[in-house]
Design goal:
Elements: E1 8-10, E2 13-16, H1 20-23, H2 28-40, H3 44-52, E3 56-59, E4 62-65, E5 84-87, E6 91-96, H4 115-125, E7 143-149, H5 152-163, E8 168-176, E9 185-187, E10 190-192, E11 200-202, E12 210-219, E13 222-229, H6 236-243, E14 266-274, E15 281-285, H7 290-302
Parallel strand pairs: 7-14
Antiparallel strand pairs: 1-2, 2-4, 3-4, 5-6, 6-7, 8-13, 8-14, 9-12, 10-11, 12-13, 14-15
Keywords: Isomerase
EC number: 5.4.99.-
Domain Pseudouridine synthase RsuA/RluA-like: 92-243
């Protein structure tokens, strides 16, 4: 993308240099629209709004788009320490600790602090005037990297990547039993459990769910496995591994023992996506949290 060296953020505006394809055209506005949709990759929904609101402007050899308007956070800022794993003008990736939901269940007031509350507080402290927009979620007790879009353009581009399965999520899990090296893919539909509204289960009438499994190490009567998802069903990893006879250590909802670990031993350790502006691959790694590392070391040392 030859124009990438010529972009800059100025307040609410993104300035780009589209080149002679636009500036040399007799019909500059039509050429600009065609370039934005076909070369720049501006989502049509956003292009229509920006055109309607007169927020696309040509100034000499520069094309200006109002991609960074001031927006309300959409959630109350409530401070909690955050570990920032990656940040630029378009994206934010943060570590989600165990026991913290990504977003409130319903009412924003009076409930526990969520990751969205903490991100709003981070935005407030750093004068980032934009809505809090998470791109994906993790279970309350699962740790790992969570991706946020810092403007509507980024959200539309990243949501499309989620829809087309272009965002890679790799998890580490400590599970009961010795997982066979031959277990590579679990392709089983997941539906609601009629007897327990909190649980999900493998069900022929459920939604398609595919989990890829890679054996990391045997730890006596437990195993370290790495998992990547093609789909993002609720509790997908937990349901699939439990169904295969290898519940996550500590996952009492799906057959694990609380005595093994104080929560399910699952960590989202890496996130890979295409940058919404540059289309370059961004890979973010989130180191194992201390409790996960301690459990691994205890299991590893126990069977030396």
């Amino acid at each position: 993308m030859s124009w990438l060296g010529g972009w800059v953020k100025r307040g609410i505006w993104l300035e780009v240099a589209p080149g002679r394809e636009v500036t040399g055209s007799a019909q500059k506005e039509e050429a600009a629209d065609r370039w934005l949709l076909e070369v720049f990759g501006l989502p049509e929904k956003l292009w229509r709004r920006l055109r309607h609101e007169k927020q696309i402007r040509l100034a000499g050899d520069r094309l200006r788009l109002a991609l960074f308007p001031t927006r309300e956070f959409g959630i109350e800022p409530r401070w909690h320490e955050l570990t920032i794993l990656y940040e630029d003008e378009f994206c934010l990736v943060v570590h989600k600790p165990a026991g913290m939901p990504v977003h409130p269940d319903s009412s924003d007031s009076g409930g526990p602090i969520t990751l969205n509350h903490a991100v709003a507080a981070y935005y407030e402290m750093n004068s980032i005037e934009t809505a809090v927009r998470h791109v994906h979620r993790l279970d309350n007790d699962t740790t790992g990297a969570v991706l946020y879009a810092k403007n509507e353009f980024a959200l539309l581009k990243l949501d499309e990547q989620m829809r087309t399965k272009q965002i890679g999520r790799r998890y580490a899990a400590l599970v009961a039993g010795r997982v066979s090296s031959g277990l590579r893919t679990i392709d089983l539909p997941i539906g609601k459990d009629r007897h327990d509204k909190q649980r999900r289960r493998v069900s022929p009438s459920g939604q398609s769910a595919v989990t890829h499994v890679e054996l990391g190490a045997y730890l006596g009567t437990a195993s370290l496995v790495y998992l990547t998802l093609e789909t993002g069903r609720t509790h997908q990893i937990r349901v699939h591994l439990s169904h295969e006879g290898h519940p996550l250590l500590g996952d009492t909802l799906y057959g694990g023992s609380r005595s093994d670990f104080g929560r399910q031993a699952l960590h989202g350790q890496s996130l890979t996506f295409r940058h919404p502006l540059t289309d370059e691959i961004v890979e973010v790694f989130d180191p194992w949290p201390e409790d996960f590392q301690v459990l691994y070391d205890r299991l590893d040392n126990k069977y030396i």
